[in-house]
Design brief:
Blueprint: E1 17-21, E2 24-28, H1 30-36, H2 40-44, H3 48-55, H4 60-71, E3 79-86, E4 92-101, E5 107-114, H5 117-135, H6 141-153, E6 158-165, E7 168-175, H7 178-188, E8 197-198, H8 203-211, E9 215-217, H9 220-227, H10 230-239, E10 244-252, E11 255-264, H11 271-344, H12 351-378, E12 386-388, H13 390-400, H14 402-407, E13 411-416, E14 423-425, H15 427-444, E15 450-458, E16 461-467, H16 496-506, E17 510-515, E18 521-528
Parallel strand pairs: 13-15
Antiparallel strand pairs: 1-2, 1-5, 3-4, 4-5, 6-7, 6-11, 7-8, 9-10, 10-11, 12-14, 15-16, 16-18, 17-18
Helix pairs in contact: 5-6, 5-11, 6-11, 7-10, 9-10, 11-12, 13-15, 15-16
Length: 529
């Protein structure tokens, strides 16, 4: 008969048992080794004193004298003792230890009954109630689920959230044995969160969701054999031979969300109702998060619509004013330029007079630019998109702005990602926006400054980055820089960036600005493909 085979009937028992012979452990069943976090081989090498020091330290002072009395025949062989045993996690657990005579001389059978199972239910209930209160303050689904699994794990259980995704379950937040988890990910060849488990492989979960009740499973390994690979299922059976399971359904507004799956040796059917109630609370917290998110989205959309309405009204009034300005100002400006041209041809014009005429021409040109920008801000944009290459458009725009760069003693550096895809856009409007953006950057830059124009691919479209080395946005509201007439420069009219924003929005894109690392401003434009 193989060594230890006489104890094989004790292998499958759910409660811990040990066989002692001459004060040495000769056998410990899987339930006991899992409870104490050791092995039969390790326990057999320890003397009785060492066993007491390691597993029953608080009771040693009176256990040893009692044992000596038993050896002298002063105490009967059978005994029922309440002892605090140190479990695998290092916690002291109140247990009822029963000792009876074995089949051989000097042999004793020791059975351990964990009497804190009832206390476990109480502590679990208290912890879950406290967590449920905290979950009501969570504002995203991940926070709710992380709080739920953390609370259960802190009570000494392994736990996972399995979310429904079509015809499969996928892992959400989990707290599992790290060695088992690493072993499973090695077998699957990818993180466990990326593994899809068919719903058909877990029919008992379908039952749990259909009945909307938590279910206790005494034999978790029979289920795991359908759920995991044979290698992982066998490993879990060897590592956690007496683990039980509790599964509770999570619903959001009567729609199944997934399963709250808990595993542990001290789980009992009594815990099912507690976990079921907690899963309902998790579902309610997830529902609150979604309602909060939807309300926030509706509020954001309402604010946007109100902003759009106010801008339309402002542009309507501004458009009427711009029409008057264009009519009443452009004609006199044209006349002034004609007179200035005549004066420049006057042979008797002095050097001072020539300088004054040149200054007059520059100021008239500046006023014409303001009138043009004003009309660009208020006129309706109706893009006529066609395929175009953004890089070619950018190079033409940079070339056109060389006089501005020379006047500001700055330069433009173009960085273009190779093989940019074509984009459908209105070439005229896009060049208008790009030239306004670069002109703003050049005029913001110090003497000798460099303006960076970077073009690259982005998810779903193209990205345009413009950086300058100017004063940046210190003390400037980045949300207002694109509003008409808002300017941070003493000589600016505050119209160019408003044009940029209107062009980008007309193409369905986005534009924003933030501080550049190292000083200056960084404008970020996204255009959908």
């Amino acid at each position: 008969m193989p060594p230890g085979s006489e104890y094989s009937p004790l292998e499958g028992l759910p409660f811990p048992i040990a066989i002692l012979r001459a004060d040495r452990v000769v056998y410990a069943n899987p339930a006991l080794t899992a409870f104490l976090g050791t092995s039969t081989e390790e326990m057999s090498r320890l003397s009785l004193t060492q066993l007491l020091e390691r597993f029953i330290p608080q009771e040693r002072t009176w256990i040893e004298p009692m044992h000596e009395a038993h050896r002298r025949g002063e105490r009967p062989a059978g005994a029922q003792l309440w002892l605090r045993l140190r479990d695998a996690a290092g916690r002291e657990r109140m247990c009822l230890v029963l000792t009876t005579a074995g089949s051989e001389p000097d042999e004793h059978v020791v059975a351990v009954q964990d009497m804190e199972w009832g206390d476990t239910v109480r502590r679990l209930t208290e912890a879950l109630v406290a967590a449920a209160v905290k979950m009501m303050h969570c504002r995203d689904e991940q926070s709710v689920l992380e709080l739920a699994v953390d609370t259960i794990h802190q009570q000494g259980f392994h736990v996972s959230v399995l979310r429904l995704d079509g015809d499969a379950f996928i892992h959400g937040p989990l707290r599992q044995d790290p060695v088992a988890l690493a072993f499973g990910e090695k077998l699957y060849g990818r993180p466990i969160e990326e593994v899809r488990f068919p719903r058909s492989s877990m029919p008992h979960w379908e039952t749990v969701m259909a009945q909307r009740k938590a279910s206790f499973h005494q034999d978790i390994h029979a289920m795991l054999e359908r759920f995991h690979t044979p290698e992982l299922a066998a490993y879990l059976r060897r590592t956690f031979p007496n683990a039980c399971a509790l599964d509770a359904p999570i619903f959001i507004e009567d729609t199944p969300y997934g399963i709250l799956a808990v595993q542990g040796q001290s789980l009992t059917p009594v815990s099912a109702s507690t976990l079921e109630l907690f899963a309902n609370m998790v579902g309610s917290a997830l529902e609150d998060v979604r309602h909060h998110r939807e309300a926030s989205a509706r509020l954001t959309e309402l604010s946007r619509l109100q902003g759009d309405l106010m801008e339309q009204e402002r542009l309507k009034v501004l458009g009427e004013a711009a029409g008057v300005v264009a009519h009443e100002v452009r004609n006199p400006l044209g006349a002034i330029l004609n007179v200035a041209a005549v004066l420049k041809r006057e042979p008797q014009l002095s050097a001072v007079g020539a300088s004054a005429v040149t200054m007059l021409e520059e100021e008239v040109t500046r006023l014409e630019d303001i009138v043009r920008d004003l009309l660009d801000v208020v006129r309706p944009f109706e893009p006529r998109p066609r395929p175009l290459h953004l890089g070619e458009l950018a190079r033409r725009t940079v070339e056109l702005l060389q006089p501005v760069a020379q006047a500001t003693q700055s330069s433009i550096s173009l960085e273009e990602e190779p093989e940019l895809p074509l984009i459908k856009a209105d070439e005229t409007l896009l060049q208008l926006a790009l030239s306004n953006l670069l002109r703003y950057a050049l005029r913001s830059s110090p003497t000798g400054g460099k303006v960076l124009l970077a073009l690259s691919s982005a998810a779903g479209g193209l990205s345009i980055i413009v950086e300058d080395q100017g004063a940046g946005l210190a003390g400037v509201d980045s949300q207002r820089v694109f509003e008409p007439f808002f300017t941070s420069r003493a000589t600016g009219a505050g119209l160019g960036l408003a044009v940029v924003r209107r062009v980008v929005l007309a193409h369905g894109g986005t534009v924003g600005v933030r501080e550049r690392s190292g000083g200056g401003a960084r404008f970020e434009v996204f255009l959908p493909g």
